[in-house]
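Incident log, structure service

09:12 report received: a user says their structure output differs between two submissions of the same chain.
09:20 pulled the input from the user's history:
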Amino acid sequence: DCGLGEFLKTADVLNRPTYEVHADYVRWCRENCINPTNKMTFSKMVGKIGGYRVIDKTIRQKKYRLFAAM
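09:34 re-ran on a clean worker, output below:
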């Protein structure tokens, strides 16, 4: 169990870059003695479990992948 469902109950995900949310998840996993998933699996599972989708957005001429509402 990667603990993602529990993490998503308290995580701030919406409109945040996927790499930032994944870093928060890895930190949370370490605090809870859980083995985290990799970034690609994490993003797919956040979509499936949390009901988010990943969008590409340019902010100040830099491209980001953000979690957005379905």
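09:41 both user submissions now match this output. Likely a transient worker issue. Closing.
09:42 reviewer note: The helical segments are 4-10, 18-31, 39-50. The mean pLDDT is 94.
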